[in-house]
UniProtKB/TrEMBL annotation:
Domain (HTH tetR-type): residue spans on this chain: 2-30
UniProt-recorded name of the protein: Helix-turn-helix transcriptional regulator
The keyword Transcription appears for this protein: no
Any GO molecular function: DNA binding
Keywords annotated in UniProt: DNA-binding
Length: 39
């Protein structure tokens, strides 16, 4: 799955994602703050 496809429903650009993550793998490796907020 592409980053573009992942972020389209969020209304953000792939450029925004790559400002915070080096690549797609890093994006999936980082723990989500939302995950911890739900616990």
């Amino acid at each position: 799955m592409s980053i573009q496809r992942l972020v389209a429903p969020l209304g953000i650009s792939t450029k925004t994602v790559y400002k915070h993550f080096k690549n797609k793998e890093e994006l999936f490796e980082e723990p989500s703050p939302l995950h911890y907020a739900q616990q």
